[in-house]
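One chain shown below:
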Amino acid sequence: MKKSISFIVLFFIAITLSHSQTDVVRANFECDVVLDIYNGLYDWSSGTEYSGGQLLESGEKYDVGARTVANKNDTDGDGLIDNSLSETSVVASALGRNEVDLMKLVVRQKSGTVSMVKLKKISGDIRMWTSPTKGGLVNFDSNNEIVIDGSELDKTLYIEAINESSSLQDIELHLLDENSKVIDKVRATGVWSMVEDVYITKLYSPEAGSGELSNLNYSKLVNHVNVTLRSADGQLYGFGEHRSEGGTENKTIGGRMLFEFKVLPDGAGDIVNFDLTRQKEGLRKAIVEGVTDITDLPSFQFPSDSNQDNEKPNDDTSSIFDEDFIPSDNYIYVEDPPSKPLYFEDFSFIMERVNFKDFVRVAIQGRPPIVDPDQNTFGSRASAFKEWSVSFNFKKGENKLEVDNDIAGVTGVRPAFGIAPEGNGEFNISANATATSSVWSLTYLETQNQWILLDNAGILNGTILDWNSVDSWVGSADGLSIVITQGSIDFKDLDSVEFDVYKSNNQKLSKIQEGHINLNSF
């Protein structure tokens, strides 16, 4: 009896071991046909790498998945969003590149002979193409399958992520044999980002790194926002005077913005690198002190307006203190302070109109960070363009630059002929809409106790400012109203000062704002 029992036990052990070994063999068996998937951000037509194009190893293609940008940009610069069904040829031009956002998928036969296989879409908002520039749409059937005849292998397809993924690796494809058995599978993620919040009006809070900006944690950017660019009265954002170099004294005048972008899907920062970059266009004009004519300063255009790639930055440098590009709770940040030094000495008037486009671009993680002082097109755009603008209208006051939003602006007075007047009285000069752009001078005639007003052509109608018997001289001419007040030191004979007037054809507004402005609104 004991021998019989022992025999039965050994028999069952042998059967069990036999099944276990069979399972091990099956688990390690490689199918005759497999799926190879590659990251996007690669020009498959020309073989140009934009940080992507890597083949995912067998252990990564499902657990990690391929990565690309949701095809909501305009890579070829033709004005059409690339994910449009009507956009079936994304081909390079002067304004853009070949399509770079498709992920390559190869249905590859390793050995043996198969009659057919099926590619089944399990999930994901995708389209399949036979061309790397989006030609040759391949539709899934009612079962979300694409039937591939054995004679077509190896077959190369290109996966387009139409929109951003709702979660990491939400794009999933299975390869089925003729019996609908799963023989391989891959996953992928489409990345995008969007503006979540804007700080561009005069605000004293929130401080970077706290409250609703607690996810901004790059120390250099936190210090730049909270300390360097804070105004003496505590303002953090918007248009006005601010410190620029820290300390307690305002040294700069202009605008300050901070944008918060949310990256999608949740956790995208774990699989790609982000960069925040910028384009700009602008017109700049000035009036040299003592000169009536307007001087055109160097202007600049958006890259796409000068036959360059529409994703090329032209307002970015190797400095990265102005951005926090490592997502914290899926948020990244960028700031910019387009401004002028308060003690600008070269011009009487400065007028600028500048439009900006901020956007996010993506590189495949594991590549070098996107720090590009040459401002090349890199990676792929992974957000809409965020448009904003700044308008400068400054005049030179007696001590510093001042905002000039009047139709006719008047600078502070300066010594005529480089000789300071001996008296230390005050000059209060304003202009109305009937004034003209000109250079003016005021000269004191001590024996008559009068001031005479001259334009750059000589005495204007013999205009005289008479003594007002209350320690001041008052007069008006050509849209100017002038009041000169005697100071603690009396004016002396032939004391002279100069000032400039600039009359604009449009209402002048100094501001920073969302959206673009008319560059010719001078």
